[in-house]
Specification:
The structure is a single chain. The chain is of the alpha/beta class. It has one domain: Alpha-Beta Complex (2-enoyl-CoA Hydratase, Chain A, domain 1). The strands form two sheets. A seven-stranded mixed β-sheet has the order 1-2-3-4-5-7-10, sandwiched between helices. α1 links the parallel β3 and β4. α5 packs across α6. GO terms for molecular function: catalytic activity.
């Protein structure tokens, strides 16, 4: 039996096997990050960190993991755009830091579309499983913004600076299998097995030698927490400053307008919700 602790759009579920599940639970919006969702994610991450059990599982409801910032919430704010984007980034970054600093292992399960800030959120895990049908896309340059949620910090460390630059600058899309080959995720699994495989992995870790796992994780991340914290601050400053500029506001408006028109060839990204890419 599971016990829901928090509410929509992010929930905590505490399982009997000492797995604490942090669930993005707004599938109708692709688990996109507006201010309400980012603040809910921050609060739920801190709550989970205060009592993390033996392992934490980060997963999502619906067909997408997290399609990034909600552009419909960003658009039309004029001179207030940067202030709003900064508030979203700050809340999401507090969640990233809390998850990164967890003393117990963190397993992430990534289905479907994962874009922008959702990529950074996915990569914060110690063990990251992706569905074969998953699609990873940074998407920032398409709307005149820079990465947030730690994406520009995690990527060079995971795939190297050359591949990180390609992903960020060219907006390349990776499948779940691509992401495994590149070292972006631990492994890709069949779509129908993702949730079960992720929970099995988290459950096995929760049942393991807890003292040793905590000590090993501390060694793996020694000295990195402060560097991530400083980098998140710079990411938030950069994306907010650009969001106030005419280029980003024009590109966001054009992107939303294009998503509002039916296309004979389908959605341009092939993976992302029409309103959410950053």
């Amino acid at each position: 039996m599971t016990l829901p602790v928090s509410t929509e759009p992010v929930r905590i579920v505490r399982h009997p096997d000492r797995v604490v599940e942090l669930r993005l639970d707004d599938p109708g919006r692709g688990n996109a990050l507006d201010l309400r969702t980012a603040e809910a994610l921050r609060d739920a991450s801190r709550e989970a960190a205060a009592d993390p059990g033996g392992a934490v599982l980060l997963r999502s409801a619906g067909g997408s993991f997290c399609v990034g910032g909600d552009l419909r919430a960003f658009a039309g704010r004029g001179a207030e755009t940067g202030t709003y984007v900064r508030a979203v980034a700050d809340a999401a970054h507090a969640a990233i830091q809390a998850l990164y600093d967890l003393p117990v292992p963190l397993v992430t399960a990534v289905p479907g579309a994962t874009a922008g800030g959702g990529v950074g959120l996915a990569l914060v895990g110690d063990v990251v499983l992706a569905a074969r049908s998953a699609r990873f896309r940074l998407a920032y340059t398409a709307i005149g913004l820079t990465p947030d949620c730690g994406a520009s910090w995690f990527l060079p460390r995971l795939v190297g600076p050359r591949r990180a630059a390609e992903l960020i600058l060219t907006d390349r899309v990776l499948t779940g299998d691509d992401a495994e080959r590149w070292g972006l995720v631990s492994r890709s699994v069949d779509d129908g097995r993702l949730d079960a495989a992720a929970h099995e992995t988290a459950s096995a870790l929760a049942a393991g030698a807890g003292d040793a796992l905590r000590a090993a994780k501390s060694l793996l991340r020694a000295g990195d927490g402060d560097g991530l914290r400083r980098h998140l601050t710079e990411e938030a400053r950069s994306i907010a400053a650009l969001a106030d500029g005419p280029q980003a506001q024009r590109l966001m408006a054009e992107f939303l307008a294009a998503r509002g028109r039916p296309k004979a060839g389908g959605d341009r990204t092939g993976t992302l919700a029409p309103e959410s890419v950053s």
